[in-house]
Amino acid sequence: MALSREEIAARYGTALFGYAQDNKVLDTVYDEMMELKKAAVANPKFISVLSDPILSSKDKKSLLTAVEKDFSDEVRDFLNLLLEYNRFADLIDIIDEFALLYDDEKKIATGTATTVVKLDDDQLKRLGDSYAKMYDLNAVRLENKVDPSILGGVVLQVKDRVIDGSVKNRLKKIRAQIIDKN
To answer: Distance between CA 86 and CA 82 in Å, rounded?
Structure first.
């Protein structure tokens, strides 16, 4: 029975996380994997070439050797493992799974701040820092989404928690109170 992409990502991401943790290089491996993800997303042919069943193992190995020379031993070992087991097509999913495990370990959350106008990096950082302090996290990385329909305020969604401080939501609550009194 073939494994799904999610199962492959979970197995390999967890394996990389444990390997990096055991070797006490978790932060280094995380940084390198995030750089690798950026490069792979910017150059999708990299993954398709290393996943191509027609290309010989020797050619794939020489291409990978050229790419991995600046990486730590742990990342090089892991990339060679992916090549050996023909899992390069799942690289992005594996990195994403590894990043989730890293964020959980480091108490880092990711979320979205929906506002009427675009927030600058400083505003997003302060909003994330406030949320992190409130929920005992080390950091919160926020992405800004602009939605004029909320009228004002901020809707903050981090993991499964939503804090709706929008004007639209406040008006909805006032309307509900008025209807309840009548």
So the answer is: 6
For residue range 126-179, what is the model confidence (pLDDT) as tens digits?
A: 999 999 999 999 999 999 999 999 999 999 999 889 999 988 988 888 888 888
Q: Which of 141, 138, 139 is nearest to 110 (CA)?
A: 141
167, 179 contact by CB (below 8 A): no
- Provide the 10 A C-beta neighbour count for residue 111: 18
Tokens matching residue 179:
């209807």
What whole-number distance in Å separates Cα of residue 66 and Cα of residue 98?
Answer: 24
Q: How many degrees, rounded to 5, is the angle at CA 114 between CA 108 and CA 119?
A: 85
Terminal Cα-to-Cα distance of the chain (whole angstroms): 62
Cα–Cα dist 36/42, whole Å: 10
Q: Which of 35, 140, 124 is nearest to 79 (CA)?
A: 35
> How much is the average pLDDT of 57-70?
89
How far apart are alpha carbons 109 and 128 in whole angstroms?
9
C-alpha 76/C-alpha 87 separation (Å) is 14
Model pTM above 0.85: no
pLDDT tens for 86-117 read 999 999 999 999 999 999 999 999 999 999 99
